[in-house]
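Sequence only, no structure available. Ideas?
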Amino acid sequence: MHQKLAAHQTLEINENCISDLYLSKIETETSETSKITWFKTQYSDCMELYVDTETVAKHFASHRSWFCQCAHPMKVEPLGENGYDLLVGKFGSFGYQLEVRVGLELVPPDSTGTYRIRDIKVPNYTAPGYEIQFQSEMRLVELPTDQFCNQKEIEKLRLPPVITGAKWNLDLTVGVKFPEFIQKMSPSLIEKTGNKLLQKIVRQVSRYLSYKTQIDFHNTYNLPFPKQRKRK
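Reply:
I predicted one. Tokens follow.
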């Protein structure tokens, strides 16, 4: 890795892996005693589903029937009653590569209607050179159809008077064990580059997963899925 770190960053989603992250030129393995460098990001979004909240809540409760296919091309295996083992993708370049894998639990809503997703341990697996702390909260809110469609410039079609917004917030912390020669670089450069790239990954993967979930949901219930009008 060298001072032109940012010039080597790319990210894309395809059918082979959810993302390819090129941090820089790394030619040595990290050791068990390597210092962990932490990167953090927060992300918020809202996924609109064009039906009442009761139908959405029932659909989310049956996530076993749709989550794995919506997460594709990530490889996903069920874990316990509400957990999943996700193979997110390969990250690396020039002879050094990490295959990121994380366990997530979709916690049922509590008495306030708050859904949570948290990281859980994947049985018989130790992450090689990284740690992930994943905490997300989501609530279902009713959105007036007329107001929402006017703001987003979309056609109302056969929509009900009120639709559902799944509003969620994510706190993500990732720790990476870099080789010693990378740790000698400017800490501010490493932090700035890592945080920026983490934000890009989260934004792209989240939007991709949300879109696939929307398409699957509306197809399952034979509901219209309006598209945003093209701006002139």
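The chain has one domain: 31-87+101-220.
Hope that gets you unstuck.
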